[in-house]
Structure formats: structure tokens, C-alpha cells
Amino acid sequence: MLPSKQQQLLYACNQYAVLLIFQAMDAAGKDGAIKHVMSGVNPQGCQVFSFKHPSPAELEHDFLWRTTRDLPERGRIGIFNRSYYEEVVIVRVHPEILLCEGLQRKPDPHGDGIWEERYRSIVDLERHLHENGTRIVKFFLHLSKKEQCKRFLARIDEPEKNWKFSLADVHERQFWKSYMKAYEECLGATSARNAPWYIVPADDKENARLIVSQIILDTFARLDMSYPRTGPERLRELEEIRKQLANQE
After folding, report:
1. What are the tens digits of pLDDT across the range 15-39?
2. CB-CB contact of 77 with 13 (8 Å)
3. What distance in Å separates the CA atoms of residue 130 and residue 122, rounded to the nearest whole number?
4. Domain that includes residue 214, residue range
5. How far apart are CA 155 and CA 24, in angstroms?
6. Could you tell me which of 15, 20, 46, 148 has the fewest CB atoms within 10 Å of its CB?
């Protein structure tokens, strides 16, 4: 859990933004981790965005556009529940999606070229963001296939969880090996010192949340932040305000 005082200092300092990215297979606990970690913060300073299948309007832009427009401003925390990394994971597992993206030239979805280009674009974007004050922390919640099955069964057995489950979830399990390969290559190609990936064991939800919380706390501890200093001119202004308030009593 992130202490509210850290969030307040981030806002007051107004030099950094923090972007937390969560990627995982279905039922890995992204929603629960986000809820737990951010339960102590002021919602006015935190923005959460979930990214699913792109809309027709979003497909008219480059693959980074729809997430870039939702980046956090300085002083705020942004959370991406899934992100632009879907474009090198789910699109790689289901390359037919590329046909809808209106690319200038027809890529070979089974070759490495298109994916290496996208890795490079992502790394360049994250380097640019870091140089301009956005600190990016990326979490891959690593769930085992066996534990996913267990959680899917719970969604069937518990009425209040029925809404979270569909046949599409079961269908995607057929591509488990392909997803693992896509994630392995993606994480290796895009983890950098200025935007690291943290692979968090997710079979144990409580432990996963503890790990995520500690990493976020460590990230904030490394930020060179302080409250704005009150200079002589500002002190005189405050004293004048004090006098005016005192005269109103």
C-alpha cells in the first residue's frame, strides 16, 4: 500500500509522474493488486486505465497512440491495467489482428521484423518519458496454468464471480505456450534500467501484493523529492495574509 504522504509529496514537488504497468494472463490478480496497492491514496491524484481490444477510431492511429494520450501528468500516478504491451503479446499470438491495423506495408507476423520494430518503438518511448520525468515500473504477474484453472473454477462455483468468466477465457488457454513465448521475448527486449520489468510470482495473491507494494515504495524512495521552499517574499505574503485574517476576527 502506498502511503498518502508519498503521493502528496509527489504532487507538491511536481517534477515527476509515476506510471505503473500491469500485464498478466487472465485471473492473475491484476485488479486485486491494483486495488490493494492504491487503497491508501487520494483518487484525485491517481488515474487508472484499462485497455482492451482497440476501437475502430483507435485503429486509425499508430499502436502507441491510445495509451500515450492517457499518460499521467507530473505530480500524478498513472496505472495501466494492460497497456501498449498488448501489441506485442496478444497481437503476436493472434497475428490476424494486424490485418485491421492499417499498416503502411504488409508485415510478416511470423517473422521477427515487426516485433523488433515495436520493441524498439516502446523502448524509445519509455526512454523519452524517463528523460522527461515519468518513472515507469512494469509488473508481470506470473501465474501458473494450474492456478489459473483453479481460479477459473472458482469463478464458476461462486455466483458473485460468474460475471468475470466467459468461454473466451477458456479458449485463450489453448495458446498458453504461445503467450509464454511472447511474454518471454517481450520482457527480455523491453526491460531497461529506466523502465524495468518485475516478474512477480502470482499464485499466492497476498505475497504478490506485498511484493508489488514494496517495489512501488522503493521506487518512490529513490525519487529526489522535497516540498517547495518558502522564500522571503512568500513569507512576507503569508504574514500579510495572517494580518488580514486576524483583522477579520
Report:
1. 999 999 999 999 999 999 999 887 8
2. no
3. 12
4. 4-248
5. 18
6. 15
